Amino acid sequence: MVTQTWFYDAILYIYALSLLFYFADFSNPNRSAKRMGTGLLLFVWVLQTIYLVYSLTSHLSLSAFSMFETLFIFGWLLVTVSLAMSRFFRIELFVFFVNVFGFAMLALNIFSKPGLAPTLSRWNVTDELLFIHITLAVTGYAAFVVSAVFSGMYLFLHRKLKEKKWTQRMQRLPSLEKMDHYALVSVVIGAPLLLLSLSLGIVWIALQGDYRLFFDPKVLNSWFVLLAYVFYMFQRLLLKAPGNRLAVWNLAAFAITLLNFVLTNYYSTFHQWS
């Protein structure tokens, strides 16, 4: 059973990584990112197929299939359809959102399976789900920190250039174009990780059965954080806003992130860490 748990965990982590590459390609068309996303998603499909073949051969009849296997087949079909859409129609945004839903449903299916043993013996299943949830969220927050630092450096260099005050320190900074690009790349990494973390948070709340937690200040503000960064990417990619305005908005989004990380800890009913 522990081996089986590692198998499920591998599917979830590879699934999350493939979605990260798909989102990166959608935000800034990149053939290498798309190939990586497709390759990882194909690997997820292979792992799911291996499990389904094992289930089919180990059951004497289809009537012995449980709800777990039925929903697993449904998730496998979503991945199959999305791979076909990616191959023949190349609608990356469709592939991304279909698989965000498939990822959340797969996590709910796996972690609600009766008798599933967690990877660590002293954990329970919800602990393992929370570990993945927290890992994705913290990694996303780290990406937002990196993005905010680049935006702060951008504003510093932009102001110095505008005032025509060139110093030796400025020679050690990347160009404005590069800092703007690095800030965007960091957000492109952080935003889908936060989205996947939130989807697992929804799964955890569903397993707990206390639906009032959907309206917890921490949960609501996390969605607000995600929307702030989505709006940043909307301005950057579609409106082609100037770099200094984007940097200001990125720092404002990071301020909301800090508010979410620090202040809502005192008001949240289940995110109180201190």
TrEMBL record:
Residue ranges occupied by any Cytochrome c assembly protein domain in the UniProt entry: 68-270
InterPro entries with a match to the protein in the record: Cyt_c_assembly (IPR002541), YpjD/HemX (IPR052372)
Coiled coil keyword on record: no
Ranges in coiled-coil conformation: none
Pfam families: Cytochrom_C_asm
Keywords, sorted A to Z: Membrane, Transmembrane, Transmembrane helix
Membrane-spanning parts: 6-24, 36-54, 60-79, 91-111, 131-157, 182-207, 219-239, 246-267
MF terms (GO), sorted A to Z: heme binding
GO biological process, one term: cytochrome complex assembly
Membrane keyword on record: yes
The protein, known as: Cytochrome C assembly protein
Organism of this sequence: Paenibacillus validus
Lineage: Bacteria, Bacillati, Bacillota, Bacilli, Bacillales
